[in-house]
Design a protein that fits this description.
Blueprint (H helix, E strand, L loop, with lengths): L15 H15 L6 H7 L4 H5 L5 H22 L8 H18 L1 H9 L12 H20 L10 H21 L6 H18 L5 H15 L1
Helix pairs in contact: 4-5, 4-7, 5-9, 7-8, 8-9, 9-10
Length: 223
């Protein structure tokens, strides 16, 4: 029987997904982010060349993790035959439900990385690439809707809506981080009410849902 040589932690050929999995596991096991690429790769049976082939820094890798969460969510949605027939409201609801399911599956890592330095979510560098992806998603939803409207006066502002989707996500992310309800049911309710509110405001429909949403937030935050 051949003897094992060197660090045998990594048996698979490294790729971007594998490096992301190793990094997330490393952070959770050591309860801290690695200080150097050299030490991180050595501890995990890799070389620095293995790492730099896919990422220029830990900062780039952390951004890629959030992009991966986004890609996983959209892939799951688009596999559904019904998704293409959904209204824009239903598509945004489905996206947020799916995205937060992905976050919940990785909750320990997400909570650690977002709380590590006590920064405001709005200023976190690791979310910058996700912000672009999510805003583009929101912009595409409204662009599709606008194409169906012959008169410009009835078309919606794509940039304003896309920024609204991002702000909405930040609110929901903070809500989910603080959510102590079973199976994060309160987050599901917040997603439904916030998405309906956004679309109601943009569609200039009655504001009953705005009032309902406000009552919900008051109840949750003051409980």
């Amino acid at each position: 029987m051949a003897k094992k040589t060197g660090n045998s932690k990594v048996k698979e050929k490294p790729n971007a997904d594998r490096l992301i999995a190793i990094y997330m596991d490393h952070v959770l096991e050591h309860e801290k982010t690695p200080k150097s690429v050299y030490k991180f790769t050595k501890d995990n049976g890799l070389t620095e060349a293995d790492f730099y082939k896919f990422f220029g820094s830990f900062e780039g890798l952390r951004k890629a993790i959030w992009e991966k969460f986004f890609d996983n969510s959209t892939e799951v949605m688009e596999k559904s035959k019904e998704y293409a027939t959904f209204s824009n409201r239903e598509k945004l609801l489905t996206f947020f439900y799916t995205f937060f399911e992905v976050l919940t599956a990785n909750r320990s890592y997400v909570l650690y990385t977002l709380n590590e330095h006590g920064q405001s979510l709005k200023t976190m560098d690791q979310l910058k690439t996700l912000r672009k992806r999510m805003k583009n998603f929101g912009k595409e939803l409204i662009a599709d809707n606008n194409r169906e409207k012959s008169l410009k006066v009835f078309q919606q502002n794509e940039m304003l809506f896309s920024e609204g989707v991002w702000v909405q996500f930040l609110f929901l992310l903070k809500f989910w981080m603080d959510d102590n309800s079973a199976a994060f049911e309160s987050t599901d309710v917040a997603i439904e009410k916030s998405v309906n509110t956004v679309f109601d405001v943009f569609d200039n429909t009655p504001l009953e849902r705005v009032v309902d949403f406000g009552k919900f937030l008051w109840k949750e935050r003051m409980a």
